[in-house]
Design goal:
Blueprint: H1 11-20, E1 28-32, H2 36-43, H3 47-67, E2 72-79, H4 87-105, H5 108-114, E3 116-121, H6 129-141, E4 148-156, H7 158-174, H8 185-190, E5 202-205, E6 224-227, H9 237-249, H10 251-284, H11 294-336
Parallel strand pairs: 1-2, 1-5, 2-4, 3-4, 5-6
Helix pairs in contact: 1-9, 2-3, 3-4, 4-6, 6-11, 10-11
GO molecular function: ditrans,polycis-polyprenyl diphosphate synthase [(2E,6E)-farnesyl diphosphate specific] activity
Enzyme class: transferase
Protein name: Alkyl transferase
Length: about 325
């Protein structure tokens, strides 16, 4: 089954899509694709068949999203917690992932046509080496595409991601790329696996469960959360429309909360910068022992902010280079094999 299904919506689906698109539309939608195992029990088939049907539903859902002008989708494909399942099921999921990413490599023309960039978010070193390599090759081969984005969270939990972001900042301090005073909420956001993406506007979980299961905890603080009872392999275009309608009904309060948070974040950063400048002036003095006037303090503040932003951008560039090199090196190993 192809990752991106070709085909137009039916007439009634197109009419409904056009009505929805008259209102505010989410640009980034995240899915917790839950219910594959229950679907298998319901249909009295093997668990692996349930997971295969779940992947097929993802391909169909991506087609709907493209037709609805939703250009970024993030999916929870495999949690680190899933490693606790039976060896047979975990091995089956690893093999299914390898097959599907290998199939993706055969669909370069289709992916290039739609401009699909594939990103895989998670601790890939927890995966078998052969799966790491095929994932890396898929990521590298679509890296320059920029029309739409599919983020696959694999070997992922949000707490693991946040912990890793803290380690990345600690690495930056140890390497002298940033100062400890540069560490902030905004910087942590840029050190997450998802740093290249805007936060999801809408998060959908299927199967009737009403919890996030350690998925995008940081990124969905101001997202619309929709919990639907349908099992993932049975998900329909109309289920997606229902979720988007809930997003539209809650759009204004969500935007207000986002805007307020941005204002508070900017104020917190300004106060932190002022404290750092005050400490620097106290330690170094003004040169003549006299208190620094307001204009001079403002000049010092502007200079400090410019230096901090330069440090932070240099650190983020080095971090991105390190991440890109990981995928590039793995993909090169695949080519040599």
């Amino acid at each position: 089954m192809s990752w991106i299904r070709e085909g137009e919506l039916s007439l009634i689906e197109r009419l409904s899509a056009n009505i929805l698109k008259a209102g505010p539309m989410p640009k980034h939608v995240a899915f917790i694709m839950d219910g594959n195992r229950r679907y298998a029990r319901k249909r009295q088939v093997e668990r692996q068949e349930g997971h295969t049907q779940g992947f097929d539903k993802l391909a169909e859902t991506l087609r709907w999203c493209l037709n609805l002008d939703i250009r970024e989708v993030t999916v929870y494909a495999f949690s680190i917690e899933n490693f606790k399942r039976s060896k047979e099921e975990v091995d089956g999921l690893m093999e299914l992932a390898k097959q599907k990413f290998s199939r993706l490599l055969e669909e370069q023309e289709n992916l290039e046509k739609h401009g699909v960039c594939i990103r895989v978010l998670g601790d890939l070193m927890l995966l078998p080496l052969d799966l790491q390599q095929v994932i890396a090759k898929a990521v590298v081969s679509t890296r320059k595409h920029n029309k739409c984005f599919l983020n696959v969270c694999f070997a992922y939990t949000s707490r693991h991601e946040i912990t890793n972001a803290v380690k990345e900042m600690a690495w930056g301090v140890e390497e002298g790329l940033i100062k400890s005073s540069d560490v902030s909420e905004a910087l942590l956001s840029k050190c997450l696996y998802s740093s290249s993406s805007p936060d999801p506007d809408l998060l959908i979980r299927t199967s009737g469960e009403v919890r996030l299961s350690d998925f995008l905890l940081w990124q969905t603080s101001y997202s619309c959360l929709v919990f639907q009872s349908v099992l993932w392999p049975e998900y329909s275009f109309w289920n997606l429309c229902e979720a988007i309608l809930q997003y539209q009904l809650n759009y204004l309060p969500l935007q207000k909360a986002k805007d307020l948070h941005k204002e508070q974040q900017a104020l917190q950063q300004l106060e932190a910068d002022r404290r750092c400048v005050a400490e620097l002036l106290m330690h170094h003095g003004s040169g003549n022992g006299k208190p620094t006037d307001a204009q001079s303090r403002q000049e010092h503040l502007l200079s400090y902010v410019a230096e901090r932003e330069e440090r932070v951008q240099g650190f983020l560039g080095a971090l991105q280079h390190r991440r890109d090199r990981y995928f590039t090196d793995l993909a090169a190993l695949t080519a040599l094999a």
